[in-house]
Amino acid sequence: MVYSYKMQEIASTMGFTLSDFADTLEQERTKVLMFQRELPLCLQIVSHAIDCCRQQLSETTTENRQSECSDQTSSDMGLVLEEFIPITRNGVFDSEQPRHLHEAQTENNKVNDSDLNNLNLPPSDWLRSAQLWNQTSDPSTLSQNTRVVEVNRNGGAFQPFQKEKTCGGGGMMSSSSDPVPAAETGLGGSSRREEKEAQNQRKQRRCWSPELHRRFLHALQQLGGSHVATPKQIRELMKVDGLTNGEVKSHLQKYRLHTKCPTPTIHNNETVQPPQFLVVGGIWVPASDYATTSSRETVSAATANGIYAPAVATAAPQPLPSTVQKPKPRPMIPSSSSAAAAAAECNSSTTSSSTRTSVSPAS
DNA sequence: AGACGTATCT
DNA sequence: CAGATACGTC
């Protein structure tokens, strides 16, 4: 901030107008973001510089909300990743309120948030769009510790179901309260009549709240992708009680469906990108992802190009250990379709030169 | 029997 | 469209 009013000077020194400078800086920032781990300070500085530019710009340009300017990165470097995706050339980069992220869990939440910003995508892009997360645009809700969000959502946003908290998905325990006897577990103990009813009646729809989905993704990530993860594993990893295999399975099916490269639109020059999967520590990982993150502990998906799964940034409970190996190495690709189809878990990856780092710790 | 994947229904 | 359910396979 000290040098905020010098930005103009600096910019002109370098032959830029202030706004050009800001743009350029943003581009720089994008690059630096790639290495945010290695260059945290750099990133911070650039970000700050951008802020300053913007601020000044907005000041000089008289009115115009200076909304864009805020110290996003200042709050927590950890947030950086989260802003990575949302940065759009449109200039709308809506920064979020600084939040206190402490728990590893919260870190995962970034995923959501980042996607929340990402609303310009076509609706078809299931996961990479915010669709699943944007139910709440209310920052206040967001700022809360997401762990509970689900519950909140129920209360507020919608309550499609008559009874029980269904939609909250399983409240995930781990909080002080009780482990939540599973939303619908209730019918287990009641009278037979109810049981019958339950049979007749379709089971209550499980509402995959953002939080739930986040956990789903998280699990997925840990398991090495939607095509290798199995419902049961996912369910276990999610640790949401009340959640059934069937539900997960169903969700997974949808997920796969939607992530199965919904990119019929681009044929042209895009060339049919050879499905790129890497086997990182025994798990399949979309190549672009891996390349992007360069860090072995993170398999962050969702890069700028938008890959199916928002990364669960950095701190996965288990840093993707090579140990997470499938108990049952079943042939993941249903033979039917080319490996290509399946492999293209989706993405129209950037030209991110798939750095084929076939990390094989197992040497 | 149970876990999966896929198709189909709601 | 999203989730539930049916059904076949392993």
From TrEMBL:
Pfam families: HHO5_N, Myb_DNA-binding. GO terms for cellular component: nucleus. Its main location: nucleus. It is found in: Nucleus. Residues 159-206, 315-363 are annotated as: Disordered. Residues 335-363 have a biased composition (Low complexity). It comes from the Eukaryota. Residues 191-200 have a biased composition (Basic and acidic residues). Keywords: DNA-binding, Nucleus, Transcription, Transcription regulation. GO terms for molecular function: DNA binding; DNA-binding transcription factor activity. Residues 200-260 form the HTH myb-type domain. This is Transcription factor HHO3-like isoform X2.
